[in-house]
Fold these 2 entries.
Entry 1:
Amino acid sequence: MFPQKQKDFLSLAALIGANLIPFIGIFLFDWDVRFIVLLYWIENLIAGFYNILKMALLKTDQAKDKLGKLFMIPFFCMHYGGFCAVHGFFLMHFFKIGSGISPLGNDLHWWGPLVFLQLLHSVIAGIWASTPPEMIWAVIGLTISHGISFVENYILGKEYKTSTLSKLMHQPYQRIMVMHIAILAGGIFVLQLNSPLPLMIILVLLKIFVDLYLHKKSHRVKPPETKGQKSSRIPDKAEISV
C-alpha cells in the first residue's frame, strides 16, 4: 500500500464540504433520495470533464502518445458519455424521474458514434428538468471540489508527469463502479422505506466515506526504492562480466 501524499489538505476539505451540501437540500428543501442519487450521477459528468482535461494536459515525450491523445480523448468522450447516458437512463426509469420522458424514444439522428453524445444530451435534459432549482448550488460545489483536487494534485502535485493515458482512461469507470454500487444499493433500500430522514443522512455519510477512500487511493504515490531493496531489473551481460 502506497503512502498518501501530504499536501492535499485543501482538496480533502473541499471534498468534504461539497459532499455536505446535500444536507441543506434534505433539511431545507425536503429532498428525497431520488434527488440525492441524481446529484451523484451528475458528479460523474463533472469527473469526466476533469478527466478530459487531465488527458489533454498529460505530459509525454513520446510521439505515439501525443498521437494517442488525438484518438483517446474523442474515444473517451463518446464511450464515457454513452456509459453515463445508459446509467442515467436507468436511474430515470427506476426512480420514476422525468414524467415518463424516454430519451430512447427521441429521433436520434447524430452521425455514427456521436449518437451516444446525443443520447447523453437527452438524458441530461430529462434529468435536469426534473431536479429542484436549488440543486445548481450543489453541482457548483462539486465542480469546485473536483477543480481544487485537479489543481492541487494533478497540476501542482505534478501527477501530469507520472500518469498515463491508459490509467486516465480507466480511472473514472473504477470510481463509478465502486461509488454507485454502494450508493445505488443504499438508495434502493431507502426508497423502499419512503426516504426516511435518518437513512438519507446515512446515505450521504456513506458517500462521503467512499469518496474519501477513493480520493486517497487515487492519489497515493509509490515510495522511492531504498538501498536495502533488491531491484527487480535484470542486469545486462556487461554488468555480469565485470
Entry 2:
Amino acid sequence: MDEIFGRRDMIAPAKLKELSVKSDLRGFVQVGSHLGALVLSGSALLLTWGTLWVVPVFMIHGILINFLYAGQHELSHWTVFRTKGFNEFFGRVFGFVLFYPRDFDQVQHFAHHRYTQNWERDGELGRKRYTLSSYLLWVLGPTYWYTRVRRILRFSLGIITEPYLPESRRPGLAREARWHLAGYAIIAAVSVLTRSSLALELWLLPMAVMKPVHQLQNTIEHLGLPHIDTITQNTRSTRTNALMRWLGWNMQYHTAHHAFPGVPCYRLPGLHHEIFVARNSTPPTMSYLAFQCAVLRAFWNGRTEADYPDDVMWISDEADFVPEAPRLRPPAKV
C-alpha cells in the first residue's frame, strides 16, 4: 500500500519523503488516546447503567468503538507505526472487534485505492446503486451489519466470489474468517456459562446502535463524485472540527490521503496544506450535515444513484454548483 496514486508534481519529492516518515511514538499516542478514551467511556457505562446518564455515555462509547475503523484503516496501510508488527497486531484486534477481518480489509481497500470509483474494480463499490431506501438502510446500519456478518460466515465456508479478491489470497481469507468465528464463539460460550452480559453492554449493543454516526464518514468520501481516475475530483474531504478529526484519525483529509496513501494519518494536515492550501487549491469538500441533506434531496421523488451520470459531480454544496439533471428513464411499457 506504499504506492503513490497522486501526481508527483503535486508536491516536492523531499517534502513527500519528510511527510511519509512513520513514528512508533506518534503511533502509540494515536492508538493510546483512542483506546484510553474507550476505557474511560466503558468504565462510565458500567457505572451509569440503570440511570439516565447511561444514554449519553452509551452513545459516546458506541461512537468510539465504531471509529476504531479509522484506526484499522490506517493500520492496514502500515502507516501508524514504524514497526510493522505493531500495525499488524492492533489491526487484527480492531478488525476482530469490528467484524471486519484485517486481511480482507487490506485486499479490499487496496483495490479501492488502485481503482477508486471504478464500478467493476473498486473494492468498495461491490454493491447495487443506491435508492433512497437502500441508502438509509446502509447509513442506519441494518444492511451494513448484515453484509459484515454474512461475509464472515460465507468466507468461513470457502464461498468467496468477490472479483477483486485474487485467487491466491482466498484460502488465507477463508482461514481468517474461521479464526474470527472461533473467537466469537468462545466469547458467546463464556458469556452464557458465566451469565454475563458484558459483551452485549460494552461491545455489541453500543457498536450496533451508534453505527449511523460512523456512516457519516463512510458515505461522504466518494458518493456523488465522478467515476473517473482523477484523485482530486473523485475523492471528497470533510469540513469538520478538531474533535472529529481526532476521532476519525484525520481521514477527513481524504483527498490528500488518496493522493499519497503512504503518508501517516498524523501527518495528513501537513500533506493537505502542501498539495492544496499552499497552491490555493481546494478538493471537493463538504460538511457531514450538508452532504447528508444533499444526498436525501438527490434521492427524493424516486430518483436513484443510477439516474445520475457517472462522469459528473452530482453532490456538492458549492455556491455556484448546478447539479446535473438526472437521466431520463425510458417510459414504462404498458
